[in-house]
Design brief:
This is Cysteine dioxygenase. By secondary structure, this protein is mostly beta strands. It is built from two helices and eleven strands, in the order H-H-E-E-E-E-E-E-E-E-E-E-E. The strands form two sheets. It has a six-stranded antiparallel sheet, with no helix packed on it. It has a five-stranded antiparallel sheet with strand order 1-2-9-4-7, covered by helices on one side. A hairpin with a 4-residue loop joins strand 10 and strand 11.
Amino acid sequence: MNTSALPDLAFPGRDKLIAAVDTAIAASDHHAVTAALRNSMCALIRDRDVQLPDCVFDPIDDHYARRELYRSAEHGYSVVAMTWAPGQGTPIHDHCGLWCVEGVWDGELEITQYELLERDGERFRFRAAGGMHAGPGSAGSLIPPHEYHTITNASGDTIAISLHIYKAPMENCSKFQPQSDEWFLRIDSTLKTDNAPA
């Protein structure tokens, strides 16, 4: 592997953030890892020594921005900052079997979890199973198979920033297109990252 090609942006507190993630990754199983990461994420968001790169505060007009800040050559995890302009959000989607810890860095996000009720080929029946209004300093985790959710910046005038730590680079996922009643059609989606200047 060419480790020099892995994303690794410089920003204040970068080493502290990576050290905290590396420590959490050493936990025994994915439940312990994600619990440790949630605690670390909440502390890092409040830590004035850690400041995300300026680029993550620049929204993109036609989609929420995904900027990969770091990828661990040793552990394989990926750190991605997402920038949500007012009203931007996701459809129901999964994480293709990857656990993830997501924290709100700035602004506020609406997160809705969905329960899979049944499946018929590529058709999935979902029901909303709870939601939360997440502000700065809050963090949550997704552990498959409980990974179906939406994220939306419901604000009409304020951007939101979230930081996501994935078990491995998340380069694709399934998105779910509404059909009728509670039924959705699964669509394979390739996820792109937006340029994050070094």
